[in-house]
């Protein structure tokens, strides 16, 4: 097991306590002497995991930059660069590797995946901003990557990588399964009168949503807009659909990249059991939430669901936010800004104040977690 290490920002040039992308501090250990001296990197696998890259890539990068031989024993978690190299130098080289092979060239976010295009170009596919940027193919490491491609390998036709949800979606979309929750009992009144009443209320809410939405959404307030269609479909199939079906419907409507879609899904799909229900539908949100606007729509939809439809859920806001945060679809800075600034964008001001005030325990937990990280860095 690798020795414990503190953590640093993946982008070490970013001096922001709310920066969410962290990695262990690279450790080194000199072994041997004379011509057999070598530098072992005991926590390379942990560092590489934080960068979502195979540990062999940064190790080989070190060798390319230093003109040194490298060796890997993945089974025993040993990554070695021949020669004696101090930790400071290797950490500087790691910064260079991150800049060249991890960070998105457009938004400088490390949330990227390497894919091999049909042209044998190596592409950084950014899950934060959606841009695809080519790495510098003149670097020697590219030859190694082409010979040892990442396990999650996409194509250059614009499709997502073969992550677990995409794989499941592709397998199930052609022949969608029956309701996965058929044995679950729901207390919702499903009589025709009750359904019609809920539809009317939902459509009114959707119209208000569009009127209150951002200016970059060009779809009108018509209930027959893609958002209105999606909202009605989610309401009608609530409790009788699964993640694959929901995402397929969103794709059919062509609104999988719209941030307002996230809001509609939250307020139309979930019930008072949102914390439990979210576990099943988290993969959908990981697909939909790709930027700050999407996160704000996630919070806006939650605000409407809790503040207007299920006020009894207001005390559960910390649990709901924790579920979003642990699923890695909510950034600290976004939720802190939301929790401390009342707005009437999605609900009336009084309701907004109640919902956001209820988030205080979660925000306090985030602050305490940051303090713990600071103490670890000091040590």
Automatic annotation (TrEMBL):
It comes from the Eukaryota. InterPro entries: ARM-type_fold, IF2/IF5, Transl_init_fac_IF2/IF5_dom, Transl_init_fac_IF2/IF5_N, Transl_init_fac_IF2/IF5_Zn-bd, W2_domain. Residues 146-165 are annotated as: Disordered. Keywords: GTP-binding, Initiation factor, Nucleotide-binding, Protein biosynthesis. One of its GO terms (biological process) is formation of cytoplasmic translation initiation complex. Residues 220-376 form the W2 domain. GO terms for molecular function: eukaryotic initiation factor eIF2 binding; GDP-dissociation inhibitor activity; GTP binding; translation initiation factor activity. Gene3D superfamilies: 1.25.40.180, 2.20.25.350, 3.30.30.170. One of its GO terms (cellular component) is cytosol. Belongs to the eIF-2-beta/eIF-5 family. PANTHER family: EUKARYOTIC TRANSLATION INITIATION FACTOR, EUKARYOTIC TRANSLATION INITIATION FACTOR 5. This is W2 domain-containing protein. It comes from Exidia glandulosa HHB12029.
